[in-house]
Amino acid sequence: xxxxxxxxxxSLNLNPRFQTDMIKHLLATVLMTFSAxxxxxxxxxxxxxxVENDTGKILLEKNANTVVPIASLTKxxxxxxxxxxxxxxxxxxxxxxxxxxxxxxxSSRVPVGASISRSDVLHLALMxxxxxxxxxLARTYPGGNEGFKAAVRRKIRALGMTQxxxxxxxxxxxxxxxxxxxxxxxxxxxxxxxxxxxxxxxxKETIDINGRGVEYRNTNxxxxxxxxxxxxxxxGFTNEAGRCLIMNITAAGKKATLxxxxxxxxxxxxxxxxxxxxxxxxxAAPVARVARASxxxxxxxxxAGGSKAKAKARTKVVKSNVKSTKNRKVAKVKxxxxxxx
Length: 341
Known about the structure:
Strand 10 and strand 11 form a beta hairpin. The chain has nine helices and 13 strands. Helix content is 38%, strand content 21%. The protein has one domain: DD-peptidase/beta-lactamase superfamily (Beta-lactamase, 3-Layer(aba) Sandwich), CATH 3.40.710.
């Protein structure tokens, strides 16, 4: 912080206009310094916190103490509370009509009436962020939903999450609120549960639903992507919360926990994660954007790329647009209401 002190009178009399210009120059220099630091890692997320695991040192921070809705990041808390209860994870849980989302009316690939082991229900809640699965875990908790809520409040207090309130297990309610600072505490605690680490870092899993194997995928497309070493992952989305992400990553031999809240789009969330990884690795060049390739995987375009790479990117985008147009002409695509994290 720049502190300007009024000096004692001296024999040197400076021109008032010169003094004003000098102060303006100093202030401009300070502002440029702060701006350069802020723009070194541009963020699309409204709240950001990155902490080095081994030292607890804050590496990057933006609005880390702002209380906001957290969407499905809630499910990490749900998982910890369920696992703390030492329940029979092989017990079959029947998905009930009461588990259906009546708040956002989101869809689910877990049918009502399906009988699934508690372990698989937890897997669906964490990896695929299924809301019916999370609701079923709370409903079948000892003491039902009220018993679950009481356990969540105790866990929040135990973790010292003083700015957090969680009213239900899915994250659909905008009243599930926290800060990036508190969510780092939740993430650090979650890593101590091997089941949570395993379930959140699997790209996909086939789960038995009424005697039929159904493949479910991770909502975080960075899980399993080349170059990523992820030790914990959870995404979240509602209109109120925006796109959210918690990850524990290793980059250049350094382990760090990152929390991203209220990004405007999934691509912005991914770009933020990419830029954080590059920052930790010591790479100064930020990623500008991420575009989907026609093959389906994320295609990363850096801000400083060669002309050939840019030309190829434009060609692929044009081909992709042409293909999409043809597909629309061939048949109407039936859309379903689905709230993806």
